[in-house]
Amino acid sequence: MRQCLFGYGSFSQGQVHFGPFANLIVSEKPAFVKGEMYRLASGYPVLDLDHPGEVIEGRLLELEAVESFWAIMDTLLGVDAKTSPFVRTEVQAMTDNYSKMDAQVYCLNWNRKPKGLKKIPKGDWQKNMAMETPFVDQLETRHRDYLLKLSKSRGREIVPIQLDLYRELLSMELIVDKGRRLALTPLGKEASLFLQ
Asked: How far apart are CA 141 and CA 105, in angstroms?
């Protein structure tokens, strides 16, 4: 079954969320949608479709994917209308020859708007990312590994940590000490979505 994804930011070639579906791409072409772009505190852009003021460039990715593909991607991104900064919705993307195509897109969930959003001027997320590397991409491997372990822990599970790493992650406001165990801060939870 062929379906389309409007890819931008972390869903563009060479970025963290591109890898899981790269082998499913049948074709890709430049496309755009109307909206606004914001930069998350973690440094990645997120599309706002509720305010269709600007032309947002991306890629229309035609995928050979089974229906369960979307459920897998939703899980990877932690998509949940009640808790996630992302929602998946359908949008009409316009290709460079002005034909319209229906596509799935991951965009901003205004019900769970994350703190630290900054509007990207003129919606130019590519220029914005080139000017400033996402915060998450600047983390050391040991930071990334620990955040992933902590994000996958459940309940009262304790994930051991070294004192120097503890201090660094605490100072970056990625973790919080809850007495007997550590937990991710909202920024830590957001950052963990981009560490797959």
From this structure: 29
As a whole number of angstroms, the distance between CA 173 and CA 40 comes to: 15
Degrees to nearest 5, angle at CA 174 with 172 and 178 = 120
pLDDT tens digits, one per residue of 139-177: 999 999 999 999 888 877 788 888 899 999 999 999 998
Q: What kind and span of H or E run contains 144?
A: helix 141-152
Name the CATH topology of 2-130.
Answer: Hypothetical upf0131 protein ytfp (3.10.490)
State the pTM of this model.
0.86
Please say whether the beta carbons of 11 and 5 come within 8 A.
Answer: yes
Ranges of residues in the chain with a pLDDT under 70 are 81, 196
Where along the chain do the CATH 3.10.490.10 domains lie? 2-130
Q: Six-digit token pair at 109?
A: 């969930």
Q: Nearest CA to 90 among 40, 49, 55, 51?
A: 49
- CA 65/CA 105 separation, integer angstroms: 15
Residues shown for the chain:
196
The radius of gyration computed from the CA coordinates of the chain, to the nearest angstrom, equals 18
